[in-house]
């Protein structure tokens, strides 16, 4: 049984962007056998504070959930790493290939994975880069994240292939995911270590 998971932001008792998580779950298990909205009706959500709701599921249904307090982690440095032929097209519970790459980050806060000569994601998030006039996200991420999908749909970001050599065209990079959201005050591209 292949286990997958969703990480959903819950703040002040409100579930953020559930429809995007539901869409990914439906794509991952090929249908709407799992209804997150119905499942959440049986969970007592904290009415104050920010929490990470992690729902583990398979094609058979929801296996478990965990609700933990969430504090934003700061990322100031990234290390560019070659991911080889790494694949992570669904949000698999088994992240061993990504974790192995993350072990190479040294003193950096996270990694920036290159696959087939183009940038994809960090170890925990999609990315967007600012070129002075627009925000661009890789056209072929490892995982098409829910925050990324929403920002593309809203027209806030656009997609393109980004190579390591083209990083000099960008001023800054932001990590985006369901927990972090989108913060335009982010990492300078000069804080990416290229090995």
Q: Element order, helices and strands? A: EEHHEEEHEEEEHEEEE
Computed Rg: 17 Å
Quote the distance from N terminus to C terminus.
38 Å
CATH topology (fold) name of the largest domain: D-amino Acid Aminotransferase, Chain A, domain 2
What is the average per-residue confidence, as pLDDT, rounded to a whole number?
94
CATH superfamily of the largest domain, by name, is: D-amino Acid Aminotransferase, subunit A, domain 2
Instruction: List the uncertain runs.
Output: none
Helix content: 10-25%
CATH class of the largest domain: Alpha Beta
Number of domains: 2
How many helical stretches? 4
GO molecular function: 4-amino-4-deoxychorismate lyase activity
Enzyme class: lyase
InterPro entries: Aminotrans_IV (IPR001544), Aminotransferase-like (IPR036038), BCAT-like_C (IPR043132), BCAT-like_N (IPR043131)
EC number: 4.1.3.38
